[in-house]
Design goal:
oxidoreductase activity, acting on peroxide as acceptor; mainly alpha; oxidoreductase; Sestrin
Length: 424
């Protein structure tokens, strides 16, 4: 379960990387409301919304190591209804989070055999937002590309790049002793390779007899960028089925549509402010600092502190060179990027003059930010290379970190506000 390319890119900003690793480790490996295998499956569902094979393949491997049922990897029709019911909120949060309502929350929490608890739902929401935003970073920094073919993930290998999350966390302030204690709890970190190979071999045997022409046809459709017509594979068993190669490694996803419903549902421009006042999300009425932090921390112990640290860390990153090139103060420049991202999701700050955005951000930068934020799967290497040609690679990574955190906070604000309204 490694993320070499991601840690290499974030490694340009070591303090942020430290904070990110702590949050990732807590979400996936520490005590929490959700079982370990379900956490990784939710991550698969979230990454699939943006066709992010990099993250999907990573969490398929971790899902199996955590003792997950290989049958679940055949598609959504093979998972428990409780988990499948998360699809609607996953879809909306990923593309149009302003559509989340208390009714969506109520539907998941209603008393039934497959109901969620509030704590479980908050854990799931944080996981979804985390993986959606991380998919933006993966595409934005080129980690999705094949690293063996000169992807940007190899531009600056760092010592952290060869470590898994747990190993990297051990070398930072999280502490060796804390890691030693909790590593025993982390099924993901402790499964032996032989056991993993056995699971993957079982999947291999199950898929051996598949119709060769069907697989060839699916590969061809994938190459042409075509998705499943109804959001499901015509043959669910022919979906994302990782096979074991001679080294026991997981080979790629064949059809991410098996993890999605309504694949055509995507981002749409939020209604203009003067067209629909009722839809605008005003931070003055519901903010992370005054409302979201306390709610999420109460229902999912300590995650609020970790998220808050990460938000503050990205805000505190040095950006004097970027700001100087744009002829403004660092805080002004970063706030312009942050507010522009939130604006695309209908979140407005009454004390901000949005005319500043056009003055601070050149057109190519705005196009890049919008693409990575709203439909990251459409990002290509040329877009990364074209914006800010005079800027350092680390400065471009900094922009992607701002995108990651601003997007994650936007999704959390909408989801947590809906949960608050349901509770009231």
């Amino acid at each position: 379960g490694r993320l070499e390319a991601v840690t290499q890119q974030m490694g340009y900003h070591p303090q942020y990387l430290d904070s990110f690793l702590k949050t990732q480790h807590y979400l996936m490996h520490m005590d929490g409301p959700l079982p370990f295998d379900c956490r990784h499956y939710i991550a698969i569902m979230a990454a699939a919304r943006h066709q992010c094979r990099y993250l999907v393949n990573l969490h398929v491997l971790q899902f199996l190591r955590a003792g997950g049922d290989p049958q679940w990897l055949r598609g959504l029709e093979f998972i428990p209804p409780k988990l499948r019911n998360l699809n609607e909120i996953n879809k909306i949060l990923a593309h149009r989070p302003w559509l989340i309502t208390k009714e969506h929350i109520e539907k998941l929490l209603k008393i039934s055999e497959w109901s969620w608890s509030l704590a479980e739902l908050v854990h799931a929401v944080v996981l979804l937002a985390h993986c959606h935003a991380l998919a933006s970073f993966v595409f934005g920094c080129g980690c999705e590309q094949d690293e063996g073919l000169g992807g940007r993930g190899l531009l600056k290998p760092l010592s952290l790049g060869n470590q898994c999350f747990c190993e990297a966390t051990a070398s930072n302030s999280y502490g060796q002793e804390l890691l030693r204690i909790n590593r025993k709890r982390s099924l993901d970190s402790c499964m032996e390779l032989d056991c993993l190979r056995e699971r993957m071999q079982r999947i291999h045997v199950e898929t051996e007899g598949r119709d060769e022409m069907r697989l060839l046809q699916q590969d061809r459709e994938e190459g042409e960028g075509q998705g499943a017509e109804a959001g499901h594979c015509s043959d669910p068993a022919a979906g994302l089925s990782p096979l074991a190669d001679t080294d026991g490694e997981v080979t790629g996803a064949t059809n991410l549509a098996c993890y999605m419903q309504d694949p055509d549902f995507g981002y749409q421009d939020f209604a203009r402010r003067d067209e629909d006042q009722t839809q605008v999300f005003r931070v003055q009425d519901y903010s992370w600092e005054d409302h979201g932090f306390s709610l999420v921390n109460r229902l999912y112990s300590d995650i609020g502190h970790l998220l808050d640290e990460k938000f503050r860390m990205v805000d505190g990153l040095q950006s004097s060179a970027m700001a100087k090139r744009q002829g403004c103060e660092p805080s002004v420049f970063k706030r312009g990027i942050w507010n522009y991202i939130h604006c695309m999701f209908g979140i407005r700050y009454d004390d901000y003059d949005y005319a500043e955005v056009n003055q601070l951000l050149e057109r190519m930068l705005k196009v890049y930010i919008k693409t990575v934020t709203c439909y990251p799967e459409k990002t290509n290497s040329e877009m990364f290379d074209r914006f800010w040609k005079q800027f350092k690679h680390s400065e471009k990574v900094h922009v992607n970190l701002l995108i990651l955190e601003a997007r994650m906070q936007a999704e959390l604000l909408y989801a947590l506000q809906a949960i608050t309204q349901y509770m009231i």
